[in-house]
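[recover] target loaded
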């Protein structure tokens, strides 16, 4: 049953947005104004040792307000959307019981969707099928497997890059196990979710009056603004010791680049460069490009969430708008 359809509806404030859109700063500003505890909605922040490349909040930021679901898992052990739903639901109830407001913050849109709508009942991972696909990819290449996917699941293939080995493999795995395309498992949206998103904060009372949750989405009006911030942040990561962080992960000896933690943007490119699979001189450009692609996918996800309240993150008044929305939500919950 979806988390929001239990007998006691979950009550929380959520802040989403693409990478480098200013979510951390906005969340800390909300925390200064209201009694909240932050629940991270980020598939990289759960892992210990992935600090610089994941833009993990600093030690002082983590200490300024209670944070949850950060540094809870070793990168050797994958963390799933199902685990997130279980953990987040428990934390939301515990934080609420303490008289505080749960504030969910992050950019892993699958987690947001899973918490709100529930998980699709698709087949579990099958190691044998996955190993067979990996072998086929070595022989034929991932573009050939993407072409195969296009024949059996054109909907999924259309939204995947042929080089996105992780998602192409999973889509083919689902088809081979179940005989059904991955797209057929997507939950049908209810009529309310077919409504158009609201971009004006003036409509907040009309749209969200009496609601138990509010999702504020930081989205750029000008992609160039976001691209510039992505480049600045990646440069700061490199200057801050990102490569040394990846070298330390490699030095453990038990990690490999196929682990979900190390397929994260930036880490994958750095690992490949250290393996000599791509020139080290190209790491910056490849890392920035991959991060731009991630941001593009995140924005696409957000646009499929019509219940969100959009704030232009490149607007000079963005922070004031986020605080206005949060304050209005808190007042309605009082």
């Amino acid at each position: 049953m979806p988390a929001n359809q239990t007998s006691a509806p979950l009550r929380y404030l959520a802040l989403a947005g693409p990478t480098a859109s200013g979510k951390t700063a906005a969340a800390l500003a909300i925390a200064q104004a209201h009694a909240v505890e932050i629940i991270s909605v980020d598939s990289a922040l759960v892992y210990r040792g992935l600090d610089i490349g994941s833009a993990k909040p600093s030690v002082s930021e983590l200490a300024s307000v209670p944070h949850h679901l950060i540094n809870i898992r070793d990168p050797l052990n994958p963390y799933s959307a199902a685990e997130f739903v279980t953990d987040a639901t428990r934390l939301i109830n515990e934080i609420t019981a303490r008289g505080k407001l749960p504030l969910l913050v992050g950019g892993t849109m699958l987690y947001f969707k899973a918490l709100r709508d529930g998980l699709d009942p698709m087949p579990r991972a099958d190691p044998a099928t996955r190993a067979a696909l990996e072998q086929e990819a070595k022989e034929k290449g991932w573009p050939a497997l993407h072409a195969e996917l296009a024949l059996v699941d054109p909907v999924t293939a259309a939204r995947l890059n042929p080089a996105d080995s992780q998602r192409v493999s999973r889509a083919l795995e689902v088809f081979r196990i179940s005989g059904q395309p991955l797209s057929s498992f997507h939950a049908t949206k209810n009529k309310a979710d077919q409504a158009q998103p609201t971009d004006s904060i003036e409509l907040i009372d009309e749209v969200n009056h009496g609601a138990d949750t509010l999702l504020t989405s930081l989205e750029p009006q000008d992609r160039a603004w976001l691209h510039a911030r992505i480049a600045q942040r990646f440069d700061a990561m490199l200057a801050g010791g990102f490569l040394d962080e990846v070298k330390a992960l490699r030095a453990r000896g038990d990690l490999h680049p196929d682990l979900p933690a190390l397929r994260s943007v930036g880490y994958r490119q750095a690992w490949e460069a250290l393996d000599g699979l791509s020139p080290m001189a190209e790491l910056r450009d490849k890392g920035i490009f991959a991060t731009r692609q991630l941001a593009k996918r995140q924005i696409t996800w957000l646009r499929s969430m019509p219940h969100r309240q959009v704030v232009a993150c490149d607007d000079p008044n963005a922070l004031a708008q986020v605080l206005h929305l949060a304050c209005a939500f808190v007042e309605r919950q009082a």
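[recover] notes: Residues 1-7, 187-210 have pLDDT under 50 and may be disordered.
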